[in-house]
Amino acid sequence: MIRITQELLNQIRAHGVRDYPYECCGLLLGRYGADGKVVKETYPISNAREESAKRNRFLIEPHELLRGERYARNNDLEVVGFYHSHPDSPAVPSQYDLEHAWPTYSYIIVSTSAEQASDLFSWEQEPDRSRFNQEEIQCQ
Amino acid sequence: MPVTISIPAPLRQFAAGQSQIVVEAKTAGEALDQLTSTHSALRRHLFNDQNTLRNFVNVYLNDEDIRHASGPDTPVKDGDTLMIVPSIAGGAVIESEVGQSLPELSNEEILRYSRHLIMPEVGMQGQRRLKAASVLMIGTGGLGAPLGMYLAAAGVGRIGIVDFDVVEESNLQRQIIHGTKDLGRRKIESARDRLRDINPHIEIETHESRLTSHNAMRLFRNYDIVVDGTDNFPTRYLVNDACVLSGKPNVYGSIFRFEGQASVFWAEKGACYRCLYPEPPPPGLVPSCAEGGVLGVLPGIVGAIQANETIKIILGAEDLLINRLLLFDAWTMKFREFKLRKDPKCPVCGEQPTIKELIDYEEFCGMAAHQAPQPDAKLEEISATELNARRLRGERIQIIDVREPHEFEIARIPGTKLIPLGHVVSRMNEIDPEVETIVHCKAGVRSAKAIQALKRAGFQGRLINLKGGITAWSEDVDPRVAKY
To answer: Is residue B42 within 8 Å of B70, Cβ to Cβ?
Structure first.
């Protein structure tokens, strides 16, 4: 389960619409707890990047993640997951997403169009890497 | 050497909840092996089935990516810290390409591709990608010949061929996919047989048609990559636009006499052909290979470069010819390279594209007007048969050949005077204005220009263009005159 405020969810949706038709992406910063994760902040990545970087295979490069982790540490937070948008496609992870993920992290995917963000789901990888399970979002 | 490995939060559950683990190792690879032998559940999240690091898993040694050092062999020393950092994937675009599981290789295929397989840049994974890939070749001419043969040999799983021509004698000087026994056969059939002979493990799909605005999108949809081996501007713009609109990479090559060009136009990643050449040249300005000639080995070199780049795209290599225009001069044996930039104002791949569907490319390139008979009645024409009849009747006419001297050496119509197009105006006084003048070249284009130039220069006599040039003469009047 992942807990997140309505305001942060709205930020993610707005970011997705802003970056349409490209995919947006960012980090979810918060804490791991006994009863799941709680998101305290989002850390947008894609809109801070050069046009050329949008063409990379990976939405978030390791050095960007490292910078985000440093920022999180300084604010007594941890990276608990990531969000990205699927322009004009459903908010479900692809096989490609599955092969490039780790368990425990939350992967929030939001489906976007030029006008609006529609579905938003969170996904967690099965520990044996076989599939993604939809994760309950508890909106606070 | 004791080195510390810091475990990212999501993987700690597979490492007994520890955030840092100290291991003894001499290299980064050894450290990871130590780590995963103690905590075996970690291994599958870091390594793939081939026992190499998963491509989204990055290992940093004191802030430096070990891929930029010596990879797993990067030495570690006492007190070093290794960090494991993922890259985060996305990309609804590439999911279709990568998402499917790759096909397996048979033992026969493993043997066949062994020189690929032993290079880590290709390996089993890369060869399976090649097998899963599909490439559409436009044309099986000079460029398509080596291209198709190398793609087939490399094991590209599905190759589509588009052509509508038949094999002619004058093709064989460079189109090595066809042979003498194929003369008169349809090119797609001849090419298919040759490719099947090279590699029976791949699929060949033939499309016998001219590529048009009506069929391009439908054809392109079924392939990962399109390779342009055409020799004319309308098709080149058509291939470019259809690739941009369907999001496919366009591996480009072109040749003329001794000079070749190659690039990869991939709008998602860089410039497209229109960013480089927004407008086609005026019709007739750039002669085709049929008019200008081409060194036979040149398309061999350029087509092989196209094959090389196509294979690199499939393998996911970096340093493609994206945003780079490679120029090759076979006569001076020099390669040069120009940087290309995506044009934000490009009408098809720019920020505000005006071309959102395929257009009429013949018209765009001014060819329709060029090829149709001139409504301008001023250009008088005569057919080869008619000209022959008039000569046999003993009519008083003069024939001016405006081709180049080396063409005159290959073949000539008897009793003609040679004045190359470039000299026709300055040597105008050698043409008798009192006698009817027939002007000819190889196919009728240059002679029409010569007539225009002479008229503009004030030539008063009657000028008549020989339709179809010396080629028509050879076909319709005298087959002893060589065609070239």
So the answer is: no
